[in-house]
UniProtKB/TrEMBL annotation:
Pathway: Amino-acid degradation; L-valine degradation. This is Acyl-CoA dehydrogenase family protein. Residues 121-217 form the Acyl-CoA oxidase/dehydrogenase middle domain. It comes from Paraburkholderia ginsengisoli. GO terms for biological process: branched-chain amino acid catabolic process.
Amino acid sequence: MIRDQETMNVLLDNVARFVRERLVPNEERVAETDEIPADIVDDMKALGLFGLTIPEQYGGLDLTMEEEVLVMFELGKTSPAFRSIIGTTVGIGSQGIVIDGTDEQKAKWLPKLASGATIASFALTEPESGSDAASLKTRAVRDGDHYVVNGTKRFITNAPQAGIFTLMARTNPDEPRASGISAFIVEADTPGISFGKRDRKMGQKGAHTCDVIFENCRVPAHNVIGGKEGVGFKTAMKVLDKGRIHIAAICVGVAQRVLDDALRYAMERKQFGQPIAEFQLIQAMLADSQTELYAARCMVLDAARKRDAGENVSTEASCAKLFASEMCGRVADRAVQIHGGAGYMADYGVERFYRDVRLFRIYEGTSQIQQIVIARNMMRAAAR
Ligand SMILES: Cc1cc2nc3c(=O)[nH]c(=O)nc-3n(C[C@H](O)[C@H](O)[C@H](O)COP(=O)(O)OP(=O)(O)OC[C@H]3O[C@@H](n4cnc5c(N)ncnc54)[C@H](O)[C@@H]3O)c2cc1C
């Protein structure tokens, strides 16, 4: 749902210009330094990028899902690390509070998130619990008006920068699966929290992950999201349904960028006396990429519109994330091929995207987990 087309066009123009003029020229610098310059983060704040999905009453833009994916199509046209710095605050780090938080929790945290003053991270994964997230072991034991948290969270995006975590921990040890889990807002400077070394990753330099370790960390009981124990896994799954559409939209944006670069190169590079774009085998790679990109874009928009209409989009979100992330990998692979030897060389940038996009098939549910979600939903629907 687009609430006001004119306002939306202005926002999309602003984001597209920002990507073109501020982010693209800094891609190599970020890849080399593994840092996003502070002045760029400040510009992101000024543009309102941290508040895209926060309700207007708390200072955000309150974008609908359709509006959000249109912005992500634009923001995707540069190194994914730039999206990552706002991504957890706009997405998985904040949406637990937006969707299920109490009025007090929203009033306390959302204005700080919307302005970018506080960065939010999402802490679900653990060393022994990844795809099987419901088996998580981090414990939160009630002690008066606090919970005492012990456990380790792994690969947490933006953890080194985070001001708060949306933390999933087990409050009921007798319930080993989802219904024993509660969601908490935890301030990063709470005593008992420490951080592992920054992970060294395949790509997305500038986006940081690390372990977050909780040792007898006392979290106020009023920080249980929604004030209710035992529903934290449901909150996490609602957050991830939305997050999957968001990631799928980013995949569309990145694939568009990489394909644009490959097309430009194919029209400039000459072999056998003509631009390589004239060769039908190159055209096949371009055309297959364009076709898949179009299909992914349509899926993402459809899933977003259905979510805006209040439908349950568990299947559509997984279909979109599965298809768009796999599509993005194929498009990046073909883009390297179209560049030939230059595609393997760092100076042309395409090998960086090839590495960067590999992550999309892994986090917020691997491709295999999306397939399982889709098939399970199909079987449930058939049984009804
Ligand atoms: C850069 C990065 C950033 C991340 N950021 C965050 C974050 O901010 N917050 C957070 O909580 N987590 C984060 N993660 C964790 C991420 O969500 C997990 O890595 C992912 O869910 C997979 O879990 P795993 O790594 O334990 O793999 P595993 O679950 O061990 O999976 C290994 C392989 O087995 C397959 N597999 C597992 N179960 C099945 C099954 N039932 N059927 C078929 N195949 C199966 C998987 O698809 C995969 O191919 C991040 C990860 C990375 C790499």
